[in-house]
Design goal:
homodimer; 228 residues; alpha+beta; Arc Repressor Mutant, subunit A; Chorismate lyase; 2 domains; six-stranded antiparallel β-sheet; 11 strands; DNA-binding
Amino acid sequence: MLKHQAIANKLKSYIDDNQLSHGTKLPSLTELMEMYGVSKNTMMQALKNLENSHVVYQVQGSGIFVRRRQRQDYDPLFQNTAGFFGNFHERITNRVLAFEKLPAEPEIAKNLQLPVGSLVYRILRLQYLDGKPFWLEESFYVADLVGHLPATVAEGSIFSYLRAQGLKIGFSDKYFDSVLLDEAQAKLLDLPPNSPALRLEDIYYLNDGRIFDYSRTYCQAKFYAQSN
Amino acid sequence: MLKHQAIANKLKSYIDDNQLSHGTKLPSLTELMEMYGVSKNTMMQALKNLENSHVVYQVQGSGIFVRRRQRQDYDPLFQNTAGFFGNFHERITNRVLAFEKLPAEPEIAKNLQLPVGSLVYRILRLQYLDGKPFWLEESFYVADLVGHLPATVAEGSIFSYLRAQGLKIGFSDKYFDSVLLDEAQAKLLDLPPNSPALRLEDIYYLNDGRIFDYSRTYCQAKFYAQSN
DNA sequence: GAGTGGTCTAGACCACGAG
DNA sequence: TCGTGGTCTAGACCACTCT
């Protein structure tokens, strides 16, 4: 564990445990450096992390303060590389609707930047959050890059499996817009037909820049994102 | 201009001007340090910037590479503090539908964390991107924090005006989901009734953590966001 | 093992804010 | 003017990748 990350975690725990409210002033940079026994640069980096994850905000010449968002009934939009479900894997369950290995159709091939007909896995899943249908996901994995995928992995986290196999997941492009669900989609998600929903398309890259996954998902959840 | 920022800009220009494609290898960290005459830390920070803005990706032990997203017909979702319109202010025009100063209703007061009845400005605008209706925005500004707002500012960028008045804008919380437009909204946006749309609610804070703006916007655009 | 990215330090100096 | 956050440097040392 990186030093600045460890410190960031400790500070965050401190804020959470003591339930400090928005605007509460924290010790000064110099004091924090001494408290944690690190250099200024490292402490700054820890604070930068916390600022980027919206736990604190810093005001030059004045101090470091606790930041809190108002609404709690929304899910985080971007958590980390693993996609939307950064820290609540436990709350997710899956129902696999399709699992097959087939040659890529033109549109899929284009998104994966492969020749048409290259072998891909297609996985269609309905995901439940806390037992409620939440997320309809169709994803395509490049067979050459992910190796053999046993059908059972689709029941759990595919990304965790791939990481365990030594794949290094790097970053992703996300495209999204708003659509009407068709009848089949709405039924699966337990919504009336013609409900509005978010559609998200993801293109995932390995850490060396090669595309290994294209997926599209539909949901009707509420999200939040914080920005600086 | 910060040194690491200036360097990041130069490198980005270099990549754009030469139209380097995804995966192109850049000079090594040490070479870049020498080329720009800065310390390792500073160069790293410049590269971190570029990595966060999805211009490059770094692979330890291997090198620094150009990153490109595939689709160009999407708008950026998060650009910077100024909200959605980071770098394309010029393409935006406004039609002001309402401009008034009034006591805050309970729901608005709650979002602004003010007592009910506090004075706020309410501004309803239709925004055009490249001349096409694009974005329906209703926003509420805290009168005590923004001072006197002449009605004419609503025709341009309100945030630019506020900044010019010395207000320091800090960060924001963004909440979004998908909804059906009602008849009036759809008409304004030049869409059929019952079209699906994205709804975005924003809560903007000053750099000292006080809320000064709450707004909700509706649109049917396509967005992208990249993540690491 | 050579080369490349990544973390950390100690200390100099700058920029902003509050009294 | 003083305390606080913010930037930059030079150099030590670590971790990964490629051959």
